[in-house]
Specification:
Blueprint: H1 5-22, E1 28-32, E2 38-43, H2 51-65, H3 69-78, H4 80-89, E3 100-104, E4 110-117, H5 121-134, E5 138-140
Antiparallel strand pairs: 1-2, 1-4, 3-4, 3-5
Helix pairs in contact: 1-5, 3-4
């Protein structure tokens, strides 16, 4: 099972709306399927040109390693050479900061991941959570 285009578009639109409502810097949102393919990508006016790569990196990192961004950060702190090697292997598409969030359905089936970037990492994550909630899906960040 995978996230639908409609769900991905809902997540992206709601995440961006949340950022605007909260006064965040311009955001970029990437929604990936479980295999890491981009289903939706949205970038607000004024968001930097590297932001799409960062959003994809946040989402693909959790999918590639099967662990939350917080778990990745702990592993990177504990074993920096491991993180450097894995990030290099992944072409830089793994980040160890909040903003990459697993997306599951109510039964706990993995549907994909969302990556948000543009503001402070915890604000990015809050926008991702708002988008996932708007789509009626379940977010997993590691902070639960």
């Amino acid at each position: 099972m995978t996230i639908s285009l409609e769900q991905a578009q809902t997540i992206a639109a709601a995440a961006l709306a949340h950022g605007t409502e909260q006064g965040f810097n311009p955001l970029t949102v990437a929604v990936l399927d479980p295999g890491g393919a981009i289903v939706a990508l949205a970038r607000q006016d004024g968001s930097g040109f590297l932001r799409p790569d960062l959003a994809v990196g946040k989402a693909s990192g959790v999918l590639a390693l099967g662990m939350t961004n917080r778990a990745i950060a702990a592993r990177a702190a504990d074993s920096p050479e491991f993180f450097t090697s894995v990030a290099n292997l992944a072409g830089g598409k793994i980040l160890s900061v909040p903003g990459g969030v697993f997306v599951k359905d109510a039964a706990g089936t993995l549907l994909g991941a969302v990556g948000v970037t543009g503001d402070a990492s915890l604000n990015d994550e809050a926008a991702a959570l708002a988008g996932i909630e708007a789509a009626g899906l379940v977010a997993v960040t590691g902070a639960e």
